[in-house]
Design a protein that fits this description.
Largest sheet: none
Oligomer: single chain
Helix content: over 70%
Structural class: mainly alpha
Shape: globular
Distance between the termini: 31 Å
Number of helices: 5
Radius of gyration: 14 Å
C-alpha cells in the first residue's frame, strides 16, 4: 500500500508541475513518464526508468491478478529502497515546482 501511495504522491506532483509550467489541463492518466513527457522537465534515463517502475506500483496494486505477484516481489528491502527513491524524486520535483 505504501508503494501505491508513493505513486500517487509523484503523480500529483507531476500534475502540479504541469499546471504551473505547461497547461491547466492535466492529462487524465496515471503513467508517470507519460505525464512527465508532457512537461518541460529534463529527465535522465535513470529517472525515466524509475518513473516507469513506480507506475507499475499503481497498476499492480489496483488489479487483483497482479496483487499476489506484487506482494511476493515487494519485500521489506524492496519497499524500503523504493520509498527512499520516491522521497528523493519527490524533493527533486518540489524544487522544480517552486521555481
Amino acid at each position: 500500500m505504501t508503494l501505491f501511495t508513493g505513486h500517487l504522491v509523484l503523480e500529483k506532483l507531476l500534475k502540479a508541475y504541469c499546471v504551473k509550467n505547461v497547461d491547466n489541463k492535466v492529462p487524465k492518466i496515471h503513467h508517470l513518464l507519460k505525464i512527465a513527457e508532457g512537461t518541460n522537465l529534463r529527465l535522465s534515463e535513470e529517472q525515466k526508468n524509475f518513473l516507469i517502475e513506480v507506475t507499475a506500483f499503481n497498476l499492480e496494486a489496483r488489479y487483483p491478478d497482479f496483487k499476489n505477484r506484487f506482494y511476493k516481489k515487494a519485500t521489506r528491502e524492496f519497499s524500503e529502497r523504493y520509498i527512499i527513491m520516491i522521497k528523493e524524486f519527490r524533493e527533486w520535483l518540489i524544487e522544480r515546482i517552486k521555481r
